[in-house]
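thought: fold this chain, then report.
action: predict
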Amino acid sequence: MKQVMLIFIVAAIALAAGVGVRQLSTPALDATPSALAEFSLPDISGAQRSSSEWKGKILIINFWATWCPPCLKEIPEFIALQEQYADKGLQFVGIAIEEQEPVSEYLKTLHINYPILIGEDKGIALSQQLGNIINAVPFTIVVNPQGQVIHRQPGEFSREKILEIITPLMQ
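observation:
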């Protein structure tokens, strides 16, 4: 059991180091905006939701998991930003890259004011399609109102960085 835990800790440290190196070594990651491909995934109640629902909005799509501490750390800030800027066209969408049951259990502990979609393997593939080449969790993209992906964020996404990106879009 101790060996498994040690392997898990080493893997987590390696992932964090990889994300850090990736962020430092690729400053031009967002140099060229690309169109967001339309996708459809079920929400927590099983209803299909399409990305076309949020056309014309500043869309922040966050790929996350209940077993990911950095993911859970940033969610309260996303909730606050959604509440504060919804009337200015901001829309968060969470895509859980796991099964519905653990997500439902987590959502009983925290009221999230934006849609949560269940991605499972399709969510992982979608995050890769959107630029998550290192399979980081969390992974977040920002889409401008014209439907172009203008920022990709492997790892945690701070309030300050989000505001730096979205403030010009809200004017």
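thought: worth noting. The chain has five helices and eight strands.
final: tokens above.
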